[in-house]
Amino acid sequence: MSIPVPPHGQARAGQPSRTGQGPRRRDRHGRGMRGPVAPPQVPLAVSRAESFDDLVRESIGRLERRWPQLAGVEFAVQEVPRTDSGDLPEGAGYVPLGRVSEARGDRPDRIVVYRRPVEIRTRGREERALLVHEVVVEQVAELLGLSPESVDPRYGED
Question: Is 29 inside any structural domain?
Answer without folding.
Answer: no
